[in-house]
Known about the structure:
Layout: H1 19-33, H2 40-46, H3 51-54, H4 61-73, H5 85-102, H6 106-112, H7 118-133, H8 138-159, H9 173-185, H10 193-197, H11 199-203, H12 207-224, H13 237-245
Helix pairs in contact: 1-2, 1-4, 4-7, 5-7, 5-8, 6-8, 7-8, 8-12
Amino acid sequence: MESGTQSRRERPAKPALSRSWIISATIDIMRTEGLEKATMRRVAQELDTGPASLYVYVANTAELHSAVLDELIGSLPESGPSGSWAERLEELLGSYAEVLFTYPGLARSALVIRPSGPNAFGLYDRVLGLLLEGGIAPERAAWGVDLLLLYVTANAAEHSAPTPSEVDTQRDEPAEQAALAEALASVDPQKTPHVAAHMEAVLSGSPAQRVAWAIHALLAGIAATPTPPVIAGGDSHYDQNIRTAL
């Protein structure tokens, strides 16, 4: 055997493959190469194994990305005791949004496959607990959690940084805002009278201000809007009215 060459017996044994190791390797790939590169084949290559070995732990790439998001949700900081329930809720939702912004593409994946791991359920429970602390009725609070998390996820999907394959078409948000303002300034008041009359309001507010306002608006709506009464068979009176109208 040539000098400096290790025999197979002398090489350190690879650690046993596990779901947690797969998720950790996927996160590392996401940090350096982007979510779209974190495929089953690429992760298997990183772990020096075959893709078939991964299917014992995750069914497909979509499930892998869902598991990664669940792992990252587990790193969200605990809410401190200070601040009102609404302030702590806004802070928690902001931390969740930050995770989605940190890993471009993850929010878009979350819109397709809802995270359903233990940490995702833990986030749901924390949001639900804060809504209940705010005096919102349990049935409204339970439905409201879905609405709040969906808004944060969709907003992150719209505004998160581009994936590596999208770099060439990366949006310049200040330039886009300027272009939008210029386009709105040229609208025909006869065709869009309300936009023309309230241009300043249409363009007002920073993205952060608009997000904060949206959360407050959603909270007010959740607190004030009753859930529909459920009748036998699982349909609500709302469902019946829609079907009757159709």
